[in-house]
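TICKET #2291
ISSUE: user wants both folds in one file
ATTACHMENT 1:
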Amino acid sequence: MSALEDQILDALALARKMSREEVAGEMRAWVLENPPRRFAICSYYDDAFGHDGELLAWGLAFDDHVIAQAPGRHLHGSFSTAESMLAIMGGADAEVVWIDEKP
């Protein structure tokens, strides 16, 4: 066996020896360090009463895609970026509002 294969087998053996509590601790730590970024898609328009706005969707941004859910509707989707989602769901005057800053 190569040195790399030995390292992999050692790592697998160590992983098998971890208790559920140890694995849960590792998962909690990873989750806290790697959360998705939250955002909203907001649309703005004029009506008989002046300016108004509407929340079109809440979203979560991961490293390689975003997911979004329109509140009060059975509309949700997965997109490559929040901006590509905006192009599809947003109107002429819409924006992505980031809730979380980039890590």
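ATTACHMENT 2:
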Amino acid sequence: MVARHCKEALHVVVERKTRLTKISKLNGCTAVRMTKREREIIALIADGMNNKEIAQQLNIATHTVKSHVHNIMEKLDLHTRLQLSKFTREENL
């Protein structure tokens, strides 16, 4: 996964309220920037919601949720929702 100091950098960047989605260097680590919508979806996945429930909660299409989930997984180099949920709990996101 990501080295400990990189996780801390990621945590800081994920918390920032920015629309930027580019990957940037921070303290020698690759830090991932999440959009506000991606942060919302991460929180809802961590709460155990499926794509349909997330779509209804946010008033967006299920396909849009799937796209956001795909982008999140790519940015964090994760492969399953379970990994994403575990990551958010470990990092207190």
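RESOLUTION: both attachments delivered.
EXTRA DETAIL ON ATTACHMENT 2: The mean pLDDT is 76.
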